[in-house]
Amino acid sequence: MMPVELSDDLYHMRTVYKQGDKEVAVTVLQTNGHTSYMDENIGFEQQKMTVKGTEILYTEYEGGRKTITWIKSASDTEYMYQIDAPGELSKEDLVKIAEAYLK
To answer: With a threshold of 0.90, does the pTM exceed it?
Structure first.
């Protein structure tokens, strides 16, 4: 088997943390100025917040799914972080997870 050559350039990474039937997914995506759009027909409510000096966007969807999203710059590259969880976790739980990434 030949070794796989890896790059230092991160484009997309998704990690899922699971305990029993509960799970939280963390996605890091290189954005570099690209814009994402959301279907307006999907029911959701959003709230801007500041956590550890970083502006984050908390979104709660119909059905209970919740996300926290923010943009972080490193060198000349922008990364979008998104924490995605089912309805069992509260907004406060997601903020605590975001705080760990914002250290």
So the answer is: no
